[in-house]
TrEMBL record:
One Pfam family matching this protein: Pullul_strch_C
Top-level taxon of the source organism: Bacteria
Keywords: Signal
InterPro entries per record: GH, Glyco_hydro_13_N, Glyco_hydro_b, Ig-like_fold, Ig_E-set, Pullul_strch, Pullul_strch_C, Pullulanase_N2
Ranges for domain Glycoside hydrolase family 13 N-terminal: 158-235
Protein known as: Pullulanase-type alpha-1,6-glucosidase
Domain Pullulanase N2 stretches: 44-146
Organism whose genome encodes this protein: Streptomyces bugieae
Length: 884
C-alpha cells in the first residue's frame, strides 16, 4: 500500500463482496433461543473500559446504569449502577481517544456482576433531565482485557498435544456455552472463569479429525443470541475451503519432509544488508512451461524450471531473501481446482489495447484461482489453493518443502502477514474471530461500527488477545515452518508495543530448543500513518517515525516517489521524476509544470534520493540543492520529514512493489512515448539502482529486472493470471500489451493507456530484457562484495558517505555519491555527463571490475580522468567507480 494519499491503494472490497456468496466455505447457521427476543442492533456509544469505568459519548453528567440479560433465570432486568466520575491518568494513557468524553464509575456494590453481565445483552441507560430514557449499546474490549487478559494471555490456545493426547482450547469469555463439534458428534467444553478459556481434552484417536466450535453468544450486530458453528482461530490445519479445522500436531514426524529437522539454511544476512525479491506464489510458476507444479508450493522444488534458475541467478548475485505475498489461509479463492473458474475467452486473440481481455478476466475473477491474498481467514495455516490437495495436511508438508527449496538455492524466506484486518466481521460466514467473541477482536469506532480504514474489517492488536494472536501466529510460522522473516501489512495500524512483542518473542527462539535462531529473523513493514489510529490517536503506532531505532524497518516511500515521479494516486499518471525524464527529457503533460517548475522539483527529488541513499537517516547532514546545510529530517516530503531513520536498517528502499503500477509500466506512462526500448531498460536499471545501492535493506518486485509489466494495471490484486503471471522466457514478452487493465481501478487511465499499449515499440525484445536483468545482477554483485554498503551506524554513514557536488550548482538529473573507496554517478539524463570532484584529483579511480567486465557494454565505457577528478558517464547509466 502506498502512503502518498494515506489510504489503501488496493484491493479487496469488490472481490470479497462477490466471493462471500461462495459455497463450501465456513458455514454459520445460527439458532435463536426462545427466551431471547430479537432486537435491532443499535449504536454502541458507551465503552466499558475496565471493571470500574464506563465512558459514554454524549451522555449527561448524571447517574446511569448498565442493564443486562443473559437469558438465564434471574438475570432479566439486572443492572450495574453508574455514577458520574472521571478517568484516572492511567485510563487516559490507555484510552487517549476517549479523554474528552463523559466518564462513569461502576458502583462498587455491583462490580461482582461484571463477568455475568458480559455474557448477555448489555445496554447503557440513562434518564435525561427532561425525563426521557436514553439507551445505547456497550463496547466491551477494555473490560474483557481487565477481567481476563492477565491470565488469558498466557493460555495455550488451539490444538495442543501432550504425550499424544490433544487438548483443544478457545478463548470465549462472553459465550454462554461452548461445545466441540468433532467428527459428527458434540462434546461439551469446560470454562475457566478466571481466563475465559474453554477447554476439552481428547483421546489419541482425535488426531486428524475435523472439528468446529459451537459458540452460543450474544451477537450485537444482529441483536440476538446465536449459536455459531465456527472454526478455530488457532487452527493448525484445515479441510478444503476452510470448512473445518483439523486436530493436527505440527510436530508430527509424518508432516516433516525428508531432511526437515536438519535443514541447512543459507547464512543469515542482517537486515541492513538484505536484498529482497518480492514474489507472489502463483505468479511465479503458473505460466512457466518448465515447471512441473505450476501455481503450487512445490514449484519451488523444481530446481530446473526457468523460474527457479532465475531465482538462483539472483541469489548468486546477492539477493538474500524471497518475500512471499500472503500465503496463509484466505477467504477468497476456491481451494478445489474443480471449483475454480477461468476466463472463457481466447485472450491472446484480442488486440493489445482492447477492452475485451479485462472484461473476460473480470467475469471470472470472483471464482478464479487468483488473489494477492490480503483477505485473512486463518492466520496460521497455509493457503490450500497452492497445495497439490487442499484437503488435510498436504499444504503443511508442501509449504515446508517450498522453504527447503528456496533455502537450497541460497535464499531465505519472508512471509507477508496481514494481521491488521480480517476478510469480514460480525455474522458473516467469513468472520471467525468476531463470531467467537463479538465486538472484541475488531477495532470499533466511537459509534460501535467496525473500522474499515485498512480496506476491510480492521482488527485491534491493542487488545490483549488480538495482540497475543499476532505474536503466537508469527512464532508458529517461525518455529514450525522455519520462516526467516516477516513483512507486516499496514504495520502502522499495530501498536509499536505489539510489534516489539513479536521481536521479543522471536529473539527468545533458540536452535537448541526451537530449531531456529530467532535473533536472525528479520522484520519490516508498512509504517503508514492514516485512519482512525493516525497520529498515535489510540496508541503509539508502529509507524515510520516511531519505529526508528528498533531494528524493524519500514518502507521508504520518499525515495520511491522521487525516482518514479509524482505519487501513486495522481490523476495524470505522466507526472515525471528523477528516473523518468523530469526536466531533462520532458513529456507533454501539463501536470509537470513549466521548465522552471520542473527543474525545481527535480532538484528537490535529488535531495530526497540523497537522504534515501543514506538509509533515510534523520540526522544525516548534507548540503541540499539550495546550498543549505540540512539534516535528512529537514528535507520536506509532502509536509512530513523526509529522513526518519535512526540507523541503517530502519528504512527499506524500493522503486516498485506489488502495489501500484510496476516500474516498467510507470515509466511507460511517464517517459516520452518515443523513448527507445533500450533507453527504457537503462532507466529501469537506474531506478532500481537507487534502492539496490542504498544503505539499509532494499526490495524489488519479482520480474522488475526483466522489465515486468502488468499491462499498466495499477491494482492487480484480482486481475488473474493473464495480467499478473511472470514470464521467465523472454520470447513470451514482458506482459505489456495484454489489453487494457481492468476497469474497476484503471478506467480513468484508459485514455493514457490505450495509445501506449497499441505501440509495438513498448514491447521489449529478448536482448533488451536479458540485458536489463544482467545489468541489475551486476549491481547486486557490487553491493554484495563491497562492505561499505553495509555500514552499521548513522555515524559511520555520516563519515563515509557524501554527495560532493550537491549544492546550488548541482547538475539536474545527476547524482554523484562518494562511499568509502567508491564513487557512484547516477546519470538519469539523455546526455553523457562529466562530474568533476576536485577533491579527488590525483587519486586513482577506475570503473568497478564488475561493470568494467560486466553485461552492459555501454556502462563499460564510463571513464575517469585522474588529473582533474572527472567522472564521465554515458546517458541513462549508473556507474560505480572503485579507488585502485
Amino acid at each position: 500500500m502506498s502512503s502518498t494519499a494515506r489510504r489503501p491503494g488496493r484491493r479487496l472490497a469488490a472481490v470479497l463482496a462477490l466471493a462471500l456468496g461462495a459455497t463450501g466455505l465456513l458455514t454459520a447457521p445460527t439458532a435463536q433461543p426462545a427466551h431471547a427476543a430479537p432486537s435491532a442492533p443499535q449504536p454502541a456509544l458507551a465503552q466499558w473500559i475496565d471493571r470500574d469505568t464506563v465512558v459514554w459519548k454524549g451522555a449527561e453528567p448524571s447517574d446511569a446504569q448498565l442493564e443486562f440479560d443473559t437469558g438465564r433465570a434471574g438475570t432479566a432486568g439486572k443492572r450495574l449502577r453508574l455514577t458520574p466520575g472521571r478517568l484516572t491518568p492511567a485510563e487516559r494513557a490507555a484510552f487517549p481517544h476517549l479523554t474528552g468524553y463523559p466518564a462513569f464509575t461502576v458502583d462498587p456494590r455491583d462490580r461482582g456482576l461484571a463477568r455475568t453481565a458480559l455474557r448477555g445483552r448489555l445496554v447503557a441507560a440513562q434518564r435525561t433531565a427532561d425525563g426521557r430514557r436514553t439507551t445505547t449499546g456497550v463496547q466491551i474490549p477494555g473490560v474483557l482485557d481487565d477481567l481476563y487478559g492477565a491470565r488469558a494471555r498466557h493460555a495455550a490456545l488451539g490444538p495442543v498435544f501432550h504425550h499424544g493426547r490433544p487438548t483443544l482450547s478457545v478463548w470465549a469469555p462472553t459465550a454462554r456455552t461452548v461445545a466441540l463439534e468433532l467428527d459428527g458428534r458434540t462434546v461439551p467444553m469446560r470454562r475457566d472463569d478466571r481466563s475465559g478459556v474453554w477447554r476439552v481434552q481428547g483421546p489419541r484417536d482425535w488426531a486428524g479429525k475435523p472439528y468446529r466450535y459451537l459458540v452460543t453468544v450474544w451477537a450485537p450486530t444482529v441483536g440476538r443470541t446465536v449459536t455459531n458453528k465456527v472454526t478455530d482461530p488457532y487452527s493448525t490445519a484445515l479441510t478444503a475451503d476452510s470448512a473445518r479445522s483439523l486436530v493436527v500436531d505440527l510436530d508430527d514426524p509424518r508432516l516433516a519432509p525428508t531432511g526437515w529437522a536438519g535443514l541447512h539454511k543459507p547464512a543469515a544476512v542482517p537486515l541492513r544488508r538484505a536484498r529482497i525479491q518480492e514474489l507472489h506464489l502463483r505468479d511465479f510458476s503458473v505460466e512457466d512451461r518448465t515447471s512441473r507444479h505450476p501455481g503450487q508450493y512445490l514449484a519451488f522444488t523444481d530446481r530446473r524450471s526457468d523460474g527457479m534458475r532465475h531465482l538462483k541467478s539472483l541469489a548468486a548475485a546477492g539477493t538474500s531473501y524471497v518475500h512471499l505475498l500472503p500465503a496463509f489461509d484466505g477467504a477468497t479463492v476456491p481451494e478445489k481446482r474443480a471449483d475454480q473458474d477461468r476466463p472463457r475467452c481466447d485472450l491472446a486473440s484480442y488486440a493489445p489495447d482492447s477492452e475485451s481481455q479485462q472484461e473476460c478476466v473480470t467475469r471470472a475473477a470472483a471464482r478464479d484461482a487468483y488473489n494477492w491474498g490480503y483477505d485473512p481467514l486463518h492466520y496460521t495455516v497455509p493457503e490450500g489453493s497452492y497445495a497439490s490437495d487442499p484437503e488435510g495436511t498436504a499444504r503443511t508438508v508442501e509449504f515446508r518443502r517450498m522453504v527447503q527449496g528456496l533455502n537450497g538455492i541460497g535464499l531465505r524466506t519472508v512471509m507477508d502477514v496481514v494481521y491488521n484486518h480480517t476478510a469480514a466481521s460480525g455474522q458473516d460466514p467469513h468472520s471467525v474471530l468476531d463470531r467467537i467473541v463479538p465486538g472484541y477482536y475488531q477495532r470499533l469506532l466511537d459509534d460501535g461500527t467496525v473500522a474499515t480504514s485498512t480496506c476491510c474489517s480492521g482488527t485491534a492488536p491493542e487488545h490483549t488477545m488480538m495482540g497475543k494472536l499476532v505474536v503466537d501466529s508469527v512464532v508458529t510460522w517461525a518455529k514450525e515452518y522455519k520462516v526467516d522473516g516477516f513483512r507486516f501489512d499496514l504495520m502502522g495500524h499495530h501498536p509499536k508495543a505489539n510489534i516489539l512483542a513479536v521481536r521479543k518473542a522471536l529473539d527468545a527462539l533458540t536452535p537448541a530448543r526451537d530449531g531456529v535462531d530467532g535473533k536472525k529473523i528479520i522484520l519490516y513493514g508498512e509504517g503508514w500513518n492514516f485512519g482512525e489510529a493516525a497520529n498515535d490517536a489510540r496508541f503509539v503506532q508502529a509507524t515510520q517515525r516511531n519505529m526508528a531505532g528498533t531494528g524493524i524497518a519500514t518502507f521508504n516511500d520518499r525515495a520511491r516517489d522521487a525516482v518514479r515521479g509524482g505519487g501513486p494516486f495522481d490523476a495524470d499518471p505522466r507526472v515525471q521524476g528523477f528516473g523518468s525524464g523530469l526536466f531533462t527529457d520532458p513529456n507533454t503533460s501539463p501536470a509537470n509544470g513549466d521548465p522552471a517548475a520542473q527543474r525545481a522539483r527535480l532538484l528537490h527529488y535529488q535531495d530526497l534520493l540523497k537522504v534515501g541513499l543514506t538509509g533515510n537517516l534523520a540526522d544525516y547532514t548534507f548540503t541540499d540543492t539550495a546550498g543549505r546545510r540540512v539534516k535528512g529530517s529537514q528535507v520536506d516530503y509532502n509536509g512530513a520529514p523526509a529522513g526518519y531513520a535512526a540507523a541503517p536498517g530502519d528504512a527499506l528502499a524500493y522503486a516498485d512493489a506489488h502495489d501500484n503500477e510496476t516500474l516498467y509500466d510507470a515509466l511507460a506512462y511517464k517517459l516520452p512515448q518515443g523513448t527507445s526500448p533500450t533507453d527504457r531498460a537503462r532507466l529501469q536499471v537506474l531506478a532500481l539502482a537507487t534502492a539496490a545501492l542504498s544503505q539499509g535493506p532494499a526490495l524489488s518486485q519479482a520480474g522488475s529486472d526483466l522489465l515486468r509489466s502488468k499491462s499498466l494495471d495499477r491494482n492487480s490484486f484480482n486481475s488473474g493470471d493473464w495480467f499478473n503471471a511472470l514470464h521467465w522466457d523472454c520470447a513470451d514478452g514482458n506482459g505489456f500489451g495484454r489489453g487494457l487493465p481492468p476497469a474497476a481501478d484503471n478506467k480513468d487511465k484508459w485514455p493514457y493507456a490505450k495509445p501506449l499499449l497499441a505501440d509495438p515499440a513498448l514491447r521489449p525484445g529478448c536482448a533488451t530484457i536479458r540485458g536489463a536483468s544482467a545489468a541489475y545482477r551486476d549491481l547486486l554483485r557490487i553491493h554484495a562484495t563491497e562492505p561499505a554498503f553495509g555500514l552499521r551506524t548513522a555515524a559511520a554513514v555520516q563519515s563515509q558517505l557524501s554527495f560532493p557536488l550537491s549544492g546550488k550548482d548541482e547538475t539536474p538529473g545527476v547524482l554523484t555519491m562518494r562511499l568509502a573507496d567508491l564513487a557512484i554517478v547516477f546519470n538519469a539524463t539523455p546526455h553523457p555527463q562529466h562530474q568533476t570532484v576536485t577533491a579527488l584529483a590525483g587519486h586513482p579511480y577506475a570503473l568497478h571490475p564488475v561493470q568494467a567486465h560486466g553485461a552492459d557494454r555501454t556502462t563499460a565505457t564510463a571513464s575517469y580522468a585522474e588529473a582533474t577528478g572527472t567522472f564521465t558517464v554515458p546517458p541513462y547509466t549508473v556507474a560505480v567507480f572503485h579507488r585502485r
